[in-house]
Design brief:
The complex is a heterodimer of chains A (about 270) and B (about 280).
Chain A lengths: L1 H27 L17 H8 L1 H33 L3 H16 L2 H19 L6 H26 L2 H9 L4 H30 L2 H6 L6 H10 L5 H37 L1
Helix pairs in contact in A: 1-11, 2-11, 3-6, 3-8, 3-10, 4-6, 6-8, 7-8
Chain B lengths: L2 H5 L2 H22 L10 H6 L3 H31 L2 H12 L6 H12 L4 H8 L11 H26 L2 H9 L4 H12 L1 H16 L3 H6 L7 H10 L5 H37 L1
The chains are: A mainly alpha (about 270), B mainly alpha (about 280).
């Protein structure tokens, strides 16, 4: 009896989580002259065709990917360097640095967004230069990605045995080489996690981009402007494509993890 | 590795000074000056006019947090009781919707809740009266719960799986029935998860402006909408907007402070149980 109740409850919550997404996907295939969101008019791929002909969407997609790649790489490099520095600090400076790092994660996104907007607008007013656009988006995205990189690299540094690095040097390895041969491989999982997080956060960000983009369009900003206007089922087609991409990525990651686990299990068995 | 490596964080320090510390100082500066840059308290004082907006945001955020906790706790508990393989699948299913942009997820609810949307069409089809749902406070709460409930479920799940089963068995051995075990052992030991879940839902819910705009119509203005209007909307006034942002930050910090207080106390309590 208890088990049945648990099953039904789980089903209802997942229905709540997935029903809207399911409806979006179904109506992306809807063939209807009036672009109705609620009346089924037969199966069609016309909205997909329209989507891939929409130059604005493709440009927004290009901007989004460019920003995500640049800010993921930049924040990973800066963040990893910072994490190594913070890790070797004394208690007080480390606490100060950690507070500054945690601040943007605790602060409401909208406040971070408007504060950066004030900074960029004031900078343009004081020093001239171009108004907000790709430049300010890069800076803003790197800023909100940095804490996530640092927080995923730091634990790996703490776990690492600092004697390893010293041992390498005692054995005649120059510091830079010792870093790349000993420290970096050790903290690599943290760096990769941080980079993936930075990349996905950047792709998904709307609130901070909204305040710092000027007239530049990213995908979330474009989606927002679509929901403000008379809505076209193109947006459903877009959601379906994005959802499918994420599903495929997740499945690939999971299959890889599964294989890795099997491999390590076999390895253990062999040992 | 010691003295040189400290220098490695110098670029980060410079970066965060320019892009986190300086912007925050600017918010403070704008909040206490007028358009020509003279000191004034006017912005801060006029925030008082919007106290109803603040109260509405806090109220709706609190309701959404409570609903998320009430709905999320049982699910987290059910998942934590499953075998490990199914647990992983379930956690992935909870996280998957978060990978769809939240604008799209909220937009999906617009199509469902509209006056001639799917839910109303379905009601009409089976002969029930239509219900007006979109542009109500209820729709805003629903949007918040829908978007943020994974942030409640995941931390709850991770503390619930970590509870040592021998503690529960000990309680049972000492004669506690299942209800008592749940109330006296499971709930107190999952408190850190409750705290982080509540903060992770409440902070974005209080400061949202998209959900209220899309699902709440014009009548459910929240703090976020107020800030948005001052910076990018018709009411352009960054000075007032900064003052509102400052007050929002203070509210959030106070809430976090209260929650942290709670957390420390509970951790000590948890230690007591373990001892």
């Amino acid at each position: 009896m208890k088990k049945v109740t648990a099953r039904i409850y789980t089903f209802l919550i997942f229905l709540f989580l997935y029903a809207p997404i399911f409806v979006l996907i179904v109506f992306s295939f809807n063939d209807s002259e009036t672009a109705s969101r609620t009346v089924w008019g037969g199966f069609s791929l016309r909205w997909y065709q329209k989507l891939f002909e929409d130059r604005l969407i493709l440009e927004a997609l290009r901007n989004t990917l460019l920003i995500a790649v640049v800010s993921a790489v930049a924040s990973t490099v800066l963040g990893t360097m910072a994490a190594i520095g913070i890790n070797s600090m004394k208690r007080l400076p480390r606490r100060i640095m950690m507070n500054i790092t945690n601040f943007p994660m605790v602060n409401p996104e909208i406040v971070t967004g408007v504060s950066l907007m004030l900074l960029f607008v004031s900078a343009v007013r004081l020093f001239g230069g171009r108004s907000l656009g790709m430049g300010s988006l890069f800076a803003a995205h790197i800023t909100f990605c940095l804490p996530y990189v640092i927080l995923s690299v730091l634990p790996k540094l703490r776990q690492m045995d600092s004697n390893l690095y010293e041992a390498a040097q005692d054995l005649g390895c120059p510091p830079v080489k010792a870093f790349f041969k000993v420290v970096l491989p050790e903290i690599m999982p943290g760096i990769v996690t941080g980079m993936i997080m930075a990349f996905t956060l950047s792709i998904d960000d709307f609130v901070i981009s909204y305040f710092t983009s000027g007239t530049t369009q990213t995908l979330p900003i474009y989606i927002y402007s679509m929901t403000r206007k008379r809505i076209s089922p193109e947006i459903n087609a877009l959601s379906t494509v994005l959802f499918a991409v994420v599903m495929v990525l997740l499945i690939i990651i999971n299959v890889r993890n599964f294989k890795d686990q099997n491999k390590s299990r076999k390895g253990e068995a062999a040992v | 590795m010691k003295s040189n490596s400290k220098l490695l964080s110098a670029p980060y320090t410079v970066w965060m000074t320019i892009f986190i510390v300086l912007p925050m100082l600017l918010v403070g500066y704008f909040a206490f000056t007028d358009k020509s840059g003279h000191f004034t308290m006017e912005n801060m004082l006029s925030v008082g006019q919007y106290s109803n907006v603040f109260l509405r945001s806090i109220w709706l955020g609190a309701v959404a947090t409570a609903v998320s906790l009430a709905l999320g706790y049982p699910l987290a508990y059910i998942i934590a009781k499953m075998n490990v393989k199914r647990q992983n699948v379930m956690v992935m299913l909870v996280m998957l919707p978060m990978w769809m942009n939240f604008l799209l997820r909220t937009y999906a609810w617009m199509t469902l809740l509209e006056d001639n949307g799917l839910i109303n069409s379905a009601l009409a089809a089976i002969g029930l009266p239509r219900v007006h749902m979109i542009n109500t406070a209820g729709a805003v709460v629903l949007g918040m719960v829908y978007n943020y409930i994974p942030y409640m479920i995941l931390p709850l799940y991770s503390v619930l799986t970590k509870i040592d089963t021998s503690v529960i068995e000990a309680a049972q051995d000492l004669g506690a029935n299942s209800r008592k075990v749940f109330l006296k052992v499971v709930i107190p030991m999952s408190m850190p998860g409750v705290i982080s879940g509540v903060t992770m839902v409440f902070v974005p819910a209080v400061s949202t402006f998209i959900i209220s705009k899309m699902l709440g119509g014009g009548g459910n203005l929240l703090i976020g909408d107020l800030i948005d209007m001052q910076f990018l909307g018709s009411a352009y006034n960054p000075n007032l907007g900064s003052a509102v942002s400052l007050v929002l930050m203070v509210i959030i910090l106070i809430c976090m402070g209260i929650m942290n207080q709670f957390d420390d106390g509970e951790e000590a309590g948890g230690g007591g149980i373990l001892l």
